[in-house]
Amino acid sequence: MFDATCPLVTKVHIEVARYSRDGRECILIGHEGHPEVEGTMGQYDASNGGAIYLVEDEEDVAALQVRNPEKLAFVTQTTLSMDDTSRVIDALRSRFPAIGGPRKDDICYATQNRQDAVKQLADECDVVLVVGSPNSSNSNRLRELAERMGTPAYLIDGAEDMQ
């Protein structure tokens, strides 16, 4: 058997398991229903009295009710937008000053490189076509990023999607 899990995802899983063992509640920044999020949430063992919470945006942070804000940590889905994730982390740190988190961002460097490339392309192009699956978090974030930059963007899964 060979475990092909991305090393960054494994790192996040290890962090969640450690927070669970330490009795810390954990906040996962991610997209509900995403396979990575489901797998990460499954790494938390609530038998130590803690809990894991999922937040997607600053509004979720504002509404979040935790048991002990002094024993709290966060992790992130590895395929998120750096810009969006930074805003959520800032909201968490503002609301829960004692919150712990990874020493280094858990966003995949390849994901960040693609996002940086789309930012540059969006400034130079009339339209951005992202080739990828509609259920891919990475592909959807790239399309959204181009649109946020003011450039029309479309997600193309195959040649049949071209018009």
UniProtKB/TrEMBL annotation:
<dbReference type="GO" id="GO:0050992">
    <property type="term" value="P:dimethylallyl diphosphate biosynthetic process"/>
</dbReference>
<protein>
    <recommendedName>
        <fullName>4-hydroxy-3-methylbut-2-enyl diphosphate reductase</fullName>
    </recommendedName>
</protein>
<dbReference type="GO" id="GO:0046872">
    <property type="term" value="F:metal ion binding"/>
</dbReference>
<keyword id="KW-0004">4Fe-4S</keyword>
<dbReference type="InterPro" id="IPR003451">
    <property type="entry name" value="LytB/IspH"/>
</dbReference>
<dbReference type="GO" id="GO:0051539">
    <property type="term" value="F:4 iron, 4 sulfur cluster binding"/>
</dbReference>
<keyword id="KW-0411">Iron-sulfur</keyword>
<dbReference type="Pfam" id="PF02401">
    <property type="entry name" value="LYTB"/>
</dbReference>
<keyword id="KW-0479">Metal-binding</keyword>
<dbReference type="GO" id="GO:0051745">
    <property type="term" value="F:4-hydroxy-3-methylbut-2-enyl diphosphate reductase activity"/>
</dbReference>
<dbReference type="GO" id="GO:0019288">
    <property type="term" value="P:isopentenyl diphosphate biosynthetic process, methylerythritol 4-phosphate pathway"/>
</dbReference>
<keyword id="KW-0408">Iron</keyword>
